[in-house]
Design goal:
It contains ten helices and eight strands. It has 225 residues and is of the alpha/beta class. Strands 2-1-8-7-6-5-4-3 form an eight-stranded parallel sheet.
């Protein structure tokens, strides 16, 4: 299992973090993780997954897998087996931009576990978090879709909701590790999230689209340290 607290950076498909830029940003994260002795993981686009995983020592996640156990007639799908083979340690599931049904999430978690992949399931509400927690992923990242990319941090704008989410996991399945995301843009936002009981944050545009990516990563890394 990955050490905590965790800063997990989703590269999405932004041009600032694809191709050579994906490797560049991942290496920035690696240097800063070692400098501050903190835990930073990255989730590059599936096309860049293999190259990024072979270029850095920090944990690399897939942005998605499909609920398919064996290869075959599945054009355009992402297999857990392939994700594992190229060096990823885990995968995001049910991101707001790639929603899955509860049954699909259940199957993906089962398949991921069979390949020793860590699962980070995103959820849009405490209520949905409760349903997903019963499926026993490794992490749940609570993200209000309205705040994603807004610059308005969930750890401040919906602090009570984040706290409720953390307490809910403790009741329903205390083995599931709580993260939060959406609008997290600074080290102060990260500190606020940790004070609410989360064990880290899931971020994207605040780092990927930053004018100075290194400075943005470092700001959040200091908050973890």
């Amino acid at each position: 299992m990955i050490k905590l607290p965790l800063l997990l950076i989703n590269f999405k498909t932004y041009k600032e973090a694809t191709g050579k830029n994906a490797v560049k940003l991942a290496k920035i994260c690696e240097v800063i993780a070692k400098k501050y002795k903190v835990n930073i993981a990255v989730a590059p686009n599936i096309i860049d997954l293999s190259e990024v995983a072979s270029s850095v020592d920090i944990p690399v996640f897939s942005q998605h897998i499909d609920p398919i156990l064996n290869g075959g007639k599945h054009t355009g799908h992402v297999l857990a087996e392939n994700v594992k083979a190229v060096g990823a340690v885990g995968t995001l599931l049910n991101h707001s931009e790639r929603r899955l049904s509860l049954e699909e999430i259940k199957e993906c978690i089962k398949i991921a576990k069979s390949f020793d992949l860590i699962t980070v399931c995103c959820s849009e509400s405490p209520e949905k978090c409760e349903q997903i927690a019963k499926l026993a992923p490794d992490f749940i990242a609570y993200e209000d879709p309205v705040l994603i990319g807004s610059g308005i941090p969930i750890s401040k704008a919906k602090a009570d909701s984040v706290k409720e989410f953390v307490e809910l996991l403790q009741r329903v399945n205390p083995k599931v590790i709580p993260l939060c995301g959406a609008g997290i843009s600074s080290g102060e936002d990260v500190k606020a999230a940790l004070k609410l009981g989360t064990k880290g944050v899931l971020v994207a545009s605040s780092i990927v689209l930053a004018k100075d990516q290194e400075k943005a990563v470092e700001d959040m890394a200091k908050a973890l340290a």
